[in-house]
Amino acid sequence: LVFHTQLAHGSPTGRVEGFSNVRELYGKIGEAFGIPPAEVLFCTLNTPQVDMEKLLGGQIGLEDFIFAHTRGRRKDVRLLKSEQALGLTITDNGAGYAFIKRIRAGSLVARVPQVGVGDVLEALDGRSLVGARHFEVARLLQELPRGQSFTLRLTEPRRAPEASGPRSGGARGEPPQGGRGTLRLRSRGPATLQE
Question: How many domains is the chain partitioned into structurally?
């Protein structure tokens, strides 16, 4: 199975194949664009925008176009936990990075303009969060006492230009597989194709 891919901030179209999980996919994207796989923060399907509704999870449609979001600017943000809940929904990419999937409107974090959807949570008060699953990061943030200040080291994804769909540098063309289907990625075992 061959899938078309681009870097979300702009690149020629590449092709990836021969992967059965997210880590292998990031490795193939790295090979296609000559970047270390660790530069890939997450992928969206069929849009270069940071759109968590289009986040690549455990499956890819055979006609889906993969956009890889890579490391952008790193930032340290100091926050005061003035409320019990920060207002974050956290997910992870299955390859070592937890990131912000949603920010609840009106929440403590929503009032901090430096924090955005798609930001990777790299460290909490100097403690590395790289390699932690989303539920571990959420637990650490929940366990912070109310009234305590803390620092988050975040890395935002490089932003895509205002555009929709694949950009120049290669045509999507007809899907090489023919027909519709879904590739289901597994953390253990081989990927499976489902019509």
Answer: 2
- Same domain flag for 23 and 99: no
Question: Could you give the CA distance from residue 133 to residue 63 in angstroms, rounded to a whole number?
Answer: 29
* Span 148-191, pLDDT tens digits: 999 999 999 998 555 444 444 333 333 344 445 666 666 666 66
CB atoms within 10 A of CB 77: 15
The domain that contains 93 carries what CATH number? 2.30.42.10
Task: Give the whole-angstrom CA distance, residue 120 versus residue 71.
Answer: 9
* Distance separating alpha carbons of residues 150 and 23, to the nearest angstrom: 31
Query: Bridge partners of 45?
Result: 66
Helix extents (H) in 80-175: 134-143
- Digit-coded pLDDT (tens) for 117-151: 999 999 999 999 999 999 999 999 999 999 999 99
Q: What residues make up the domain containing 59?
A: 2-71+179-194
pTM for the model stands at 0.80
CATH number reported for the structural domain that contains residue 19 in this entry: 3.10.20
> Which residue, 6, 10, 5, 9, is CA-closest to 158?
9
